[in-house]
């Protein structure tokens, strides 16, 4: 059998004994501490000496940070597939994509029947498993509209709402030994998970052959199916005492043929011994990986998942897939892959990229950028994929996806210094900072990624008290166009650091930010819905109140047109940055006089609660046509133009965000964002069919505007650059573009053209 080139996965098979549950968890924690990948647990619900496996999996996932978890294997007859799918997806979401589904037809039939399970023959059990597998995947498939309906031989699902969708593409690994189960594995499963000691008839080679033949008959590549192996009766000693009972070098010598000749790429040891676990992870793991890499290099074996003919047929002609660096082979999603629908679109834009590269670290970014540059296609960079203007997807190009680079660290609790990777979502940042009594203002939507916002602006719920997000960026780690990794701050590459804060998407791919968070816990949060039929009067009142309010008050306001004969409505969001209820009430109350109140509510809440991430799937569902500007003040003249706009029926929503306060404290020349006198950001958005009318209306408001926020503008008319970067800022940016990105590699989001007379690119020492 061939080596299928999958990345090695090493882990443990732990007995879930109920007599010492603390030790079970400690063994899982030891698995993670030893740098192993996964902890798995037996699932025998009828055994009263065992903990319930799925309760245990949830507990272990919560007690660890990187460790993947799985049952080894789930007893299907006692876990109905519709509920199992929900439980699996929930655990995967809660753990950040660290759950895998080991699944079996069910052993010990009498014990299963004793708990109410059905009496099935082995053959019926296999057929029930195949039926269940289809239900599970259908529950996870939220791309399908309408309820899930299934009427089968063994299971009935009359009308079930689909979802939730797991955080990642959960692998379904079958514990299989007999030909019928092995053929099902080849046809439908993602992996084969036997125990070495139980492989008798058919043996290992014959079982692999059955799986491969079934895969080919089903139109699959055999290499699509991972081969995982449980190993019992193993140990370490200074001398050889038996199979996998001896020194580390013996283990490597005996495991290597299983990888290279039998196609196995995962080994799970069933020894509840912390010492054995530690040696397996810290000594065998690195040595085995090094040996496998060496042998694969010598044999020319490509590391990465095999792809079926169906997947290969969906490849674009725009890129050379075979030229992909080996280091990225397991980190890409192609158009035919099952997870492609999850990564092809952004929140607001539909896309069909030829390849999505999901980077996990800065070295991946370097490799991805070099490969993308060699392909002469559009290159999009995605952190969260939510921004209205950020073209974080494309047609036929390459997306460098940073969503897996999402760590959040508090470096110094006393000063509030934090390090955040670009793929983290701001809602998660807020949650991570809350235990330290810290916060970082970002916006009003927790699903927004760190990378786009922290290089563009960040007009958030705490802006008037603490300023913009970029006002608190103190350093950044960046991969520039020529592939170098740099750390920039006020003293290291200060010009580049200046440019990153406001125009960062034009100068490289930021792989980490350092920011100074600030102490704040609870805030007063209020929403007021107002009849804004007298729109201009309402706008002038709201604007005046915002400007006169104490700095603790920041306000967002959304204006909606009349619907079904109703009034124009305004939804005012108010945040008081502090927990002084009496002061908050005094500051918030005047806003009730802006117009007839339709609805209101107020509460004291932790900051993280008001930006909780909804975890929406991105499918191009946002409004893809919007215009952005800034106003010094909401004057009567501007308010009357806006009233005509919202009453025209051509605009679906307008949003206003308060600035002023601390935003004005930062000198306008301290960074590329230079809008330090305006009090309001304004956005107007509509459906594509109304875009021409939007432009007509916007043309009447435009003469009254001063500035523009890149994140909210979907037009990339070069003439708008001077709105975003008024001179002399734009000229300085063009000079820096000529220095750092003269060939315009980073050109997807309001490309700043390099100055023609810019300086020649000079080597810069690290």
Count the DSSP helices.
23
Q: From the alpha-carbon coordinates, what is the Rg to the nearest angstrom?
A: 29 Å
Report the end-to-end length measured between terminal Cα atoms: 48 Å
Biggest sheet statistics: 9 strands, parallel
Roughly what percent helix? 25-40%
Strand content: 15-25%
Low-pLDDT segments, ≥5 res: 760-766
Spatial arrangement of strands, main beta sheet? 3-2-1-13-10-9-8-5-4
Q: What sort of overall outline do the alpha carbons produce when their principal axes are compared?
A: globular
> What class, by secondary structure content?
alpha/beta
- The overall strand count is 31
Mean pLDDT score, rounded? Answer: 94
Describe the structure.
With 766 residues, this protein is an alpha/beta fold. Helices cover 31% and strands 20% of the residues. The chain is built from 23 helices and 31 strands. The protein has a nine-stranded parallel β-sheet. Helix 7 (204-217) links the parallel strand 9 (191-192) and strand 10 (226-231). It is globular, with a radius of gyration of 29 Å.
Please give a quick description of this structure:
By secondary structure, the protein is an alpha/beta fold. 31% of the residues lie in helices and 20% in strands. Helix 6 (179-188) links the parallel strand 8 (172-174) and strand 9.
Topology:
Blueprint: E1 9-14, H1 21-33, E2 38-41, H2 53-63, E3 68-71, E4 74-75, H3 81-94, E5 101-104, H4 109-114, H5 122-140, E6 148-151, E7 156-160, E8 172-174, H6 179-188, E9 191-192, H7 204-217, E10 226-231, E11 235-236, E12 245-246, H8 248-260, E13 266-269, H9 274-299, H10 309-313, E14 332-333, H11 340-343, E15 355-358, H12 362-374, E16 379-382, E17 398-401, E18 408-412, E19 417-420, H13 426-433, E20 438-439, H14 450-453, H15 463-466, E21 473-479, E22 485-489, H16 494-503, E23 509-516, E24 518-519, E25 522-531, H17 535-548, E26 553-560, E27 569-576, H18 581-588, E28 597-606, H19 607-610, E29 625-631, H20 636-647, E30 653-658, E31 680-686, H21 691-701, H22 721-724, H23 729-740
Parallel strand pairs: 1-2, 1-13, 2-3, 4-5, 5-8, 8-9, 9-10, 10-13, 11-12, 15-17, 16-17
Antiparallel strand pairs: 6-7, 14-15, 18-19, 19-23, 20-24, 21-22, 21-23, 25-27, 25-28, 26-27, 26-30, 29-31, 30-31
């Amino acid at each position: 059998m061939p080596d299928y080139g999958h990345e090695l996965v090493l882990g443990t098979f732990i007995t879930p004994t109920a007599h010492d549950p603390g030790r079970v968890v400690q063994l899982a924690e030891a698995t993670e501490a030893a740098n192993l990948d996964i902890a798995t647990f037996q699932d025998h619900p009828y055994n009263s000496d065992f903990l319930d496996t799925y309760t245990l999996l949830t507990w272990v996932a919560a007690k660890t940070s990187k460790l993947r978890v799985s049952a080894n294997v789930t007893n299907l007859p006692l876990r109905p597939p519709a509920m199992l799918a929900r439980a699996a997806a929930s655990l995967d979401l809660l753990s950040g994509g660290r759950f895998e589904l080991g699944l079996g037809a069910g052993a010990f039939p009498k014990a299963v029947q004793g708990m109410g399970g059905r009496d099935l023959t082995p053959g019926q059990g296999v057929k029930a498993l195949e039926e269940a597998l289809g239900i599970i995947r259908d529950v996870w498939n939220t791309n399908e509209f309408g309820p899930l309906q299934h009427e089968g031989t063994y299971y009935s699902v009359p009308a079930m709402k689909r979802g939730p969708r797991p955080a990642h593409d959960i692998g379904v690994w079958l514990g299989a030994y007999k030909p019928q189960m092995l053929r099902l594995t080849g046809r439908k499963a993602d992996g084969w998970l036997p125990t070495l000691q139980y492989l008798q008839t058919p043996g290992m080679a014959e079982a692999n052959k059955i799986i491969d033949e079934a895969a080919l008959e089903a139109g699959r590549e055999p290499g699509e199916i991972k081969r995982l192996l449980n190993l019992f009766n193993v140990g370490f000693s200074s001398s050889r005492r038996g199979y996998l009972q001896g020194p580390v070098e013996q283990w490597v010598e005996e495991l290597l043929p299983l990888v290279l000749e039998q196609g196995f790429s995962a080994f799970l040891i069933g020894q509840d011994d912390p010492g054995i676990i530690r040696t397996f992870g810290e000594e065998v793991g690195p040595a085995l990986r090094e040996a496998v890499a060496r042998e694969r290099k010598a044999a020319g074996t490509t590391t990465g998942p095999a792809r079926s003919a169906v997947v290969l047929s969906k490849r674009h002609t725009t890129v050379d897939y075979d030229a992909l660096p080996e280091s990225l082979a397991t980190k890409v999603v192609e158009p035919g892959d099952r997870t492609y629908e999850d990564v092809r679109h952004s929140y607001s834009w539909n896309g069909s990229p030829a390849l999505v590269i999901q980077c996990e670290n800065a070295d991946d970014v370097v490799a991805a950028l070099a490969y993308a540059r060699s392909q002469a296609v559009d290159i999009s960079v995605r952190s969260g994929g939510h921004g209205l203007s950020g073209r974080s997807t494309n047609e036929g190009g390459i997306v460098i996806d940073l969503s897996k680079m999402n760590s959040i660290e508090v470096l110094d609790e006393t000063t509030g210094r934090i390090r955040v990777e670009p793929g983290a979502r701001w809602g998660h940042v807020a949650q991570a900072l809350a235990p330290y009594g810290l916060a970082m203002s970002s916006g009003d939507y927790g699903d927004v990624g760190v990378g786009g916002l922290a290089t563009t602006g960040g007009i958030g719920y705490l802006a008037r008290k603490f300023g913009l997000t970029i006002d608190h960026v103190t350093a950044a780690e960046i991969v520039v166009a020529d592939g170098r990794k740099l750390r920039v701050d006020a003293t290291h590459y200060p010009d580049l650091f200046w440019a990153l804060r406001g125009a960062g998407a034009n100068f490289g791919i930021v792989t980490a930010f350092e920011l100074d968070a600030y102490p704040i816990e609870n805030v007063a949060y209020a929403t007021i819905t107002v009849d804004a039929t007298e729109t201009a009067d309402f706008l002038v009142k709201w604007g005046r109140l915002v400007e006169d309010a104490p700095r603790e008050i920041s306000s967002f306001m959304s204006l909606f047109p009349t619907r079904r004969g109703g009034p124009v409505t305004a939804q005012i969001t108010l945040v008081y940055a502090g927990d002084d209820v009496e002061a908050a009430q005094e500051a918030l109350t005047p806003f009730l006089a802006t117009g007839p109140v339709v609805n209101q509510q107020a509460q004291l809440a932790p900051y993280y609660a008001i930006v909780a991430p909804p975890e929406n799937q991105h499918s191009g569902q946002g409004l893809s046509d919007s215009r952005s500007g800034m106003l010094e003040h909401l004057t009567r003249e501007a308010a009357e133009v806006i009233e005509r706009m919202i009453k025209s029926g051509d605009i679906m929503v307008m949003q206003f965000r308060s600035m002023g306060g601390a935003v004005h404290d930062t000198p306008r020349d301290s960074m590329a964002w230079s809008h330090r006198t305006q009090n309001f950001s304004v956005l107007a958005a509509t459906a594509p069919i109304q875009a021409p009318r939007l432009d007509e209306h916007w043309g009447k408001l435009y003469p009254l505007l001063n500035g523009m926020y890149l994140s909210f503008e979907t037009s990339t008319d070069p003439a708008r650059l001077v709105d975003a970067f008024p001179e002399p800022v734009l000229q300085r940016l063009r000079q820096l573009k000529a220095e750092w990105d003269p060939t315009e590699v980073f050109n997807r989001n309001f490309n700043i053209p390099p100055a023609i007379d810019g300086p020649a690119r000079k080597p810069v020492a690290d």
